[in-house]
Write a structure and sequence with these properties.
This protein is α/β, with parallel strands linked by helices. A six-stranded mixed beta sheet has the order 6-7-8-3-9-10. Helix 4 crosses helix 5 and helix 5 runs parallel beside helix 6. The N and C termini lie far apart (about 40 Å).
Length: about 250
């Protein structure tokens, strides 16, 4: 479904991606792990075409992402295949919850009538465990966990084929993080969607992943089934999952 082949990306003198190779199969839940600032989000933005790679190729179901022109109908159709759960929620404070959930369905190529969009919002809110009365509230009236659920409802509102989850449990207490992890896993399986999650939360990794890829130093250090994570044999992976200060990953002291 998604393939990155020798992808490089630099910002000035900062070489972020140094030849990333990664394959995500259709219907698979891939989790990319790695420290802050290692390029996980940059890799995802290259897939979406929000950032152009300096070198290499990014394809989605064999289609070269780089050839899609900004603002074209072809690119709009391409982006319509994706859903996204943003790290900080990224809800619009001036819009009620139901309009946040159906933001894409109220405008653009996916536009639906308002009453239909509201019905979809209510159903997606129900799917993430929120009652219909939440629909008319504003983001500021919600707890952090509820905001994250609204973000998840928005990510699935248009029934996307591919969903990206950017640090889905950041800022949540352990119980709510567990709830969100379970919801993500259930929804991805139900929809048959291809999922790519960026996280450094190892509890999320074990709850969500079919496969795991470790990004460090601008390259994929290791990739494999989540069941092999503890026996990867890679010192970078071992240090990361154990949280050890000793190992090949340099720490600031």
């Amino acid at each position: 479904m998604i393939e990155l082949n020798d992808v490089h990306k630099a910002f000035g003198q900062n070489q972020v991606l140094r030849g990333v190779n990664l394959v995500v199969s259709k219907g698979e839940s891939m989790v990319i792990i790695g420290g802050s600032g290692t390029g996980k989000s940059v890799a995802v933005k290259c897939v979406l075409g929000l950032i152009s790679a300096d070198k290499g190729q990014v394809t989605v179901e064999g289609e070269d992402v780089t050839r899609l022109k900004q603002g074209s109908a072809e690119r709009d159709a391409f982006l319509a295949r994706f859903g996204m759960l943003f790290q900080g929620g990224a809800l619009f404070d001036s819009l009620p919850v139901w309009q946040n959930v159906t933001f894409r369905l109220l405008r653009g190529s996916l536009k639906r009538p308002w009453d239909e969009a509201r019905g979809i919002a209510t159903e997606k809110l129900r799917r993430v465990g929120l009652t219909p009365d939440v629909a008319d509230l504003y983001p500021a009236e919600l707890s952090g966990g509820m905001q994250k659920r609204v973000g998840l409802a928005r990510a699935i509102a248009a029934e996307p084929e591919i969903i990206f989850f950017d640090e889905p449990t950041t800022g949540l207490d352990p119980i709510m993080a567990g709830v969100i992890n379970d919801l993500i896993r259930e929804i991805v399986v139900e929809m048959g969607a291809t999922a790519v999650t960026i996280t450094h939360d190892m509890t999320s990794v074990r709850a969500i992943a079919d496969k795991v890829a470790m990004l460090h130093g601008g390259k994929i250090r290791w990739t494999g089934p989540v069941t092999n994570l503890d026996d990867s044999g890679d010192p970078y992976v071992e240090q990361f999952i154990t949280g050890s200060a000793e190992g090949p990953i340099e720490t600031v002291r």
